[in-house]
Amino acid sequence: MSKITRRQVLGGAAALGATAATGSALAHGNNSESPALKHNVYFWLKNPNSTADRDALIAGLRTLADIPSVKYISIGVPASTEKREVVDNSFQVSELLMFENVEGQDAYQVHPIHKKFVEDCSHLWERVVVYDSIDA
Length: 136
Hints:
Layout: H1 6-20, E1 37-45, H2 51-62, E2 72-76, E3 93-99, H3 102-110, H4 112-121, E4 125-134
Antiparallel strand pairs: 1-3, 1-4, 2-3
């Protein structure tokens, strides 16, 4: 799995900011260097106020970065953004994984690290919602 450096993040943010007004290829999903499949997963914990359960789930999610087909991973918690009807921040933990293609995501699903994560952590959540998307 390739790691993203601080320089790449800052450089990418600067490029995105500089091109936002001009309608760049990045804004339209035509960046050929970006993995094509995005796997967004949202978790609702059985004990939503348990910091220990949240931290255990996050630790388990971090192990998924070692799966070879995972090209990018981001783990988060709800942001304190403006309350609006279209915003659902009722989950406790989220993850975004990126894969080169559907085959990479398929390999991830059956990988021993993913199976161990589910075995070790599924007792922590009461609900999981997955949104998979592919570049248009």
